[in-house]
Amino acid sequence: MSTTESTPRTRRLSAVLREDERVTPLELFFDLVFVLAITQCTALMAKDPTWTGIARGVLVLGLLWWSWVGYAWLTSVVDPEEGAVRIAIFAAMAALLVTALCVPTTFADDHTATIFAVAYGLVRFGQVALLGVGARDDPNLSHSVSTLAGSTTFGVTIVLAGSFVSDPTVQLAIWALALLLDMAGPYFFGAAGWRLVPGHFAERHGLIVLIALGESIVAIGVGAQHGIDAGVIGAAILGTALAAAIWWLYFDVVAIVAARRLADAEPGRPQNTMARDSYSYLHFPMVAGIVLIALGMKKTLGHVEEHLHAVPAAALLGGTALYLLAHVAFRYRNVRTLNTRRLGLAIVLVLLIPPSTALPALATLAILTALLIALIAYETHSYGPARDRVRHELARQTNPD
């Protein structure tokens, strides 16, 4: 009797270690809540397009990102669609939704800030609790969960304390400290005890990049609400081309190479450390860059013939530069080579921010899109044979004829 009863329980709470494991429908459902979180962060920055507003939006995005990252690691330890875990994931979704709803006024209303902090804590501790259940028969994982519980408690406590501060600037500083300390936990405490399904983990992060790109498309629609004319149509076309270029830069080769590097890494500490650095850490500036681009797009579509002010221009060009720099770091972490082309373009885009404020917004968008397309064309031509091997190697292995 005991053996029969323990089998399904082990299956529900054991690591999902099949190499062909794909992202489940419930995980995609969970990620849909993160769509609202990203939209709310863009709205927060759009409502206050100042340097302080940008800092607030990126900070809140960081807190929400770290919540999402925890559940990306969780689903390598527990099956999210089995037993009570499914209900727990639903509860975490509800808490994350409440957190996202608080974003637009979390720096303007002490009551909302406290609700944000409490809901954020529920999301974080829900992940830790599920990890603890999944790690009960694994001493190494149990130790890692214990250290995570400590850093999570520390970070959430600081966020909660900051929510009672009336001064928005002080609140911003306290929450920035909380995020920094929380994200530093896995770096200082190590990653030896974690379990990981490489293909599943890489796919999950690729999908979150797609979700962020969806926000840039939404920004086109929101920005075009002032009316449809030739300028808006031109900006919408350029915006779509820009989003396609951002997609190409990641999914054409980078995502494939990174996923294979992760799968080929030695299981245990080396693989977990690569996953932590390449995905948990370096995908955040990618997503943040895309969100900043979405903000710049929203402002561009609203006033295509006017020039962009300094902050929206910095969001559009600087956000793209941040995205490219994240790619440079991502490649260096995985293959130890420097992508000088993307690094060079990132520097050019930063240098273009001051003069872009004197140009019509549509012209700035056109220049940015043209530069990215030129980069893609050059890389595609330069790396033609290598690109073909990367993109079609798996297909050749599967169908050698």
Overall tally of domains: 2
CATH level 1 name of the largest domain: Mainly Alpha
Alpha-carbon distance between the termini?
51 Å
Counting DSSP H or I runs of 4 or more residues, the number of helices is 16
Largest sheet: none
The portion of residues forming beta strands comes to under 5%
Query: Which structural class do you get from the secondary structure elements?
Result: mainly alpha
Gyration radius over CA? 22 Å
Explain how this protein is built.
- This protein has 401 residues and is mainly alpha-helical.
- The protein has two domains: 22-194, no CATH class; 196-388, I/LWEQ domain.
- The protein has 16 helices and no strands.
- The chain has helices at 2-13, 25-47, 51-74, 83-102, 110-134, 139-163, 168-189, 198-223, 230-251, 254-264, 269-281, 283-302, 310-335, 340-356, 361-382, 384-398.
- The longest helix has 26 residues, at 198-223.
Summarize the structure.
The chain is an all-alpha fold and 401 residues long.
Structural features:
401 residues, mainly alpha, I/LWEQ domain, 2 domains, globular
Which SSEs are present, and which pair or pack?
Blueprint lengths: L1 H12 L11 H23 L3 H24 L8 H20 L7 H25 L4 H25 L4 H22 L8 H26 L6 H22 L2 H11 L4 H13 L1 H20 L7 H26 L4 H17 L4 H22 L1 H15 L3
Helix pairs in contact: 2-3, 2-4, 2-8, 2-12, 3-5, 3-7, 4-5, 5-6, 6-7, 8-9, 8-10, 8-12, 9-12, 9-15, 10-11, 10-13, 11-13, 12-13, 13-14, 14-15
